Amino acid sequence: MELVVSPKGVVRCLYEETLPIATLGALQIARASHVEPDPKGQWYADLAPVDGPRLGPFERRSEALTAERDWIYQHRLLAVER
Q1: 43 within 8 A of 56, measured Cβ to Cβ
Q2: Which H helix or E strand runs over 37?
Q3: pTM (predicted TM-score)
Q4: Which three-class secondary structure state does DSSP give residue 74?
Q5: Predicted confidence pLDDT, tens digits, the chain (82 residues)
Q6: The CA-based dihedral angle spanning residues 64, 66, 68, 72, taken in that order and rounded to the nearest 10 degrees
Q7: How far apart are the C-alpha atoms of 32 and 50, rounded to whole Å?
Q8: Is 14:77 a contact under the CB 8 Å cutoff?
Q9: Which of 17, 59, 64, 82 has a C-alpha 20 to 30 A away from that of 43?
C-alpha cells in the first residue's frame, strides 16, 4: 500500500486493509470507479466518479482492475494538491 502525502499534510491512497489508516486521522473515503462486465462478458473500468474515462474492454476482470489501479495512481494519487 502506497501513501502519498501532500505538502499540506493530506494523505491519499488506494484503500486497502493493509494498514490501519484510521490511525492517521479523520478519513474521507470515496468511490473512484466501477468495474463491471457488459452483456457480452467484457470488463470495463468506469472512472466517471472522478471525471475519468471508461477503460476497456478487457477479457478478464483482473485486467480491468489493473487498468483501474494504474489510472487512479497516475491521475489521482500523483495529482495531490499543493
Answers
A1: yes
A2: strand 34-37
A3: 0.82
A4: helix
A5: 888 888 888 888 988 888 898 988 899 999 999 999 999 999 999 999 999 999 999 999 999 999 999 999 999 888 755 4
A6: -170
A7: 6
A8: yes
A9: 17
Total of domains in the chain: 1
Domain span holding position 56: 4-77
Distance, in Å, from the CA atom of 70 to the CA atom of 2, rounded to the nearest integer, reads 13
Q: Is residue 20 part of a domain?
A: yes
Burial of 55: CB neighbours in 10 Å, binned 0-12, 13-18, 19+: buried
| Residue whose C-alpha cell reads 494498514 in the numeric block | 19
CB 34 within 8 A of CB 50: no
* CA 20 – CA 72 distance, rounded (Å): 21
**49, part of any domain:** yes
Q: Is residue 31 part of a domain?
A: yes
Does 82 reside within a domain?
Answer: no
User: How many whole angstroms separate alpha carbon 38 and alpha carbon 46?
Assistant: 12
